[in-house]
Amino acid sequence: MTDDLLARHRAVLPSWMPLYYDEPIELVSGSGRRVTDARGRSYLDFFGGVLTNMIGYDIPEIREAVERQLATGIVHSSTLYLIRQQVELAEKVAQRSGIPDARVFFTNSGTEANEAALLVATNHRRSHQILAVRNSYHGRSYAAMGVTGNRNWSASGLNPLQVAWLHSGDRVRGLLARLTPEEQVDAAVEDLREVLATQTAGDVAALIAEPIQGVGGFVHPPDGLFAGWKKVLDEHGILFIADEVQTGWGRTGEHFWGYQAHGVTPDLLTFAKGIGNGFALAGVVGRAEVLQAVPAISFSTFGGNPISTAAGNAVLDYLIEHDLQANAARVGAILADGLRSAVGGLDCVAEVRGKGLMLGVEFVRPGTSEPDPALTNRVFEACRSGGLLAGKGGLYGNVLRMGPPLTLTEDEAREGLAILVDAIRSAAEVAA
């Protein structure tokens, strides 16, 4: 029973691993965009295992690709031997990255991907100075935590890097919040110049930034900000790392990668989550001269293994053949427009934001910009009661996050929208 499993979980797993919901659920089966819990309750999934089940559940093309690899008897060989699936996926990722003369290094998670990007950037520049963005999240290892600008996810103050912090794209609160998009870009670029002049020794290795901040509550800057930043970075030879762990593979609808909204090309790009559709797969792709700047032997034991890359090839092929980027734009617009129309005017809703199928609703105390995590949790629980799984996030835990599979249909979007609107309105009435 689920209750017994919960007790067993608490007896053997650390308390800092959170479980969703007042009554945590065990998911036992899934198909398409729907999952079923151990009590037989079905849910429309608008969070996809934290934006990881990008194609959905029980997809024949992905299952069959993995089964074909399993049938060979080779689950693992290590990268000391040629791996056909790995090479084929690396070719596709390099071609799609938009980075010239690209090389790819596979890892198991976004944390490892960002760690690898920081490793090569600091080696290439011979500096441990990094620029990072407030409200960001880049992973749970020491270096990745070191460039994470959200204290809720920084479990240690120890840091192997020297980090200087830039303003985020937050339009609800903060120094840049009340500016127009054009003014915000200008102010952020001016801030970057001042940070370089006052907080660094000059020889900074890289700036790492998410096009849309995932854990940060889907906060994102005005389009073009990265271009303003990169002009300054290029003046100093500083590398730009785009953390596309959540924004990649067409999720924003507008572009295949989030960075493309800014008209720039990064030196390094990290990816994870959706490319494996549940299988552990991630990596970093970058210019050869940068990615090869590692003065020692290194490899990832399980990174890019035959099973995960078989899944990754099937995922990427499916994504392109079914033009899921276009679907994200089309179906995401149904959700975004519907939410803005139905609840955007409520005085407890500070902002409906995001792009494509990466959407957030930020809740505040009525008439203020003060975060309201209690209201957010009521909406979150009401969604679950209504048959919809969503996520939470934001610096203050007051953002409802939606990142459905990119295969979400228009009918499913409207179904989920109805549940969301009802949950928000009912929770808002209680708050009033």
Automatic annotation (TrEMBL):
<dbReference type="Pfam" id="PF00202">
    <property type="entry name" value="Aminotran_3"/>
</dbReference>
<dbReference type="InterPro" id="IPR015422">
    <property type="entry name" value="PyrdxlP-dep_Trfase_small"/>
</dbReference>
<comment type="similarity">
    <text>Belongs to the class-III pyridoxal-phosphate-dependent aminotransferase family.</text>
</comment>
<protein>
    <recommendedName>
        <fullName>alanine--glyoxylate transaminase</fullName>
        <ecNumber>2.6.1.44</ecNumber>
    </recommendedName>
</protein>
<keyword id="KW-0808">Transferase</keyword>
<dbReference type="GO" id="GO:0008483">
    <property type="term" value="F:transaminase activity"/>
</dbReference>
<dbReference type="InterPro" id="IPR015424">
    <property type="entry name" value="PyrdxlP-dep_Trfase"/>
</dbReference>
<dbReference type="InterPro" id="IPR005814">
    <property type="entry name" value="Aminotrans_3"/>
</dbReference>
<keyword id="KW-0663">Pyridoxal phosphate</keyword>
<comment type="subunit">
    <text>Homotetramer.</text>
</comment>
<dbReference type="InterPro" id="IPR015421">
    <property type="entry name" value="PyrdxlP-dep_Trfase_major"/>
</dbReference>
<keyword id="KW-0032">Aminotransferase</keyword>
